[in-house]
């Protein structure tokens, strides 16, 4: 009954030179991750890949990948337009219900929610 995941990603990963040495965002990400070697960075990359695969499996096993993806996308759009806390769920739910998962519509819904609460 255990779920076991493996992933093989043939890619070159390095920390010496290149973007990780000169690009400010790349440097900040490496520092934030706390990785000290290319092996550690590769393990993080593989972990992210496994997490994404696990999320896809969950979506397939529960509500279906399309519906699950649309709900996740709607939540991301809601947060992007400034929704916080339970506003995110309310905006996302309205977007999915309408079938209009768009930034402009999310902003309209959020503004409407906030108008009603004041």
Automatic annotation (TrEMBL):
Key words of the record: Oxidoreductase
Record carries keyword Isomerase: no
Coiled coil: none
Keyword Oxidoreductase: yes
EC numbers, comma separated: 1.1.1.88
InterPro entries reported for this sequence: HMG_CoA_Rdtase, HMG_CoA_Rdtase_cat_sf, HMG_CoA_Rdtase_CS, HMG_CoA_Rdtase_sub-bd_dom_sf
GO molecular function: hydroxymethylglutaryl-CoA reductase (NADH) activity; hydroxymethylglutaryl-CoA reductase (NADPH) activity
Span of the signal peptide: none
Pfam families named in the record: HMG-CoA_red
One example of a Gene Ontology biological process annotation: coenzyme A metabolic process
Top-level lineage group: Archaea
PANTHER family: 3-HYDROXY-3-METHYLGLUTARYL-COENZYME A REDUCTASE (PTHR10572)
Name the record gives this protein: Hydroxymethylglutaryl-CoA reductase, degradative, hydroxymethylglutaryl-CoA reductase
Species annotation: uncultured euryarchaeote Rifle_16ft_4_minimus_39
């Amino acid at each position: 009954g255990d779920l076991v995941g493996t992933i093989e990603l043939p890619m070159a990963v390095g920390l010496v030179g290149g973007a990780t040495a000169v690009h400010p965002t790349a440097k900040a990400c490496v520092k934030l991750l706390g990785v000290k070697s290319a092996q550690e960075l590769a393990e993080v990359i593989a972990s992210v890949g496994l997490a994404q695969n696990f999320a896809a499996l969950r979506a397939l096993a529960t509500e279906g990948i399309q519906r699950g993806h649309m709900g996740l996308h709607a939540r991301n759009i809601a947060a992007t337009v400034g929704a916080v806390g339970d506003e995110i769920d309310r905006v996302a739910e309205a977007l999915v219900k309408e079938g209009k998962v768009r930034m402009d519509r999310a902003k309209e819904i959020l503004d409407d929610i906030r108008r009603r609460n004041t």
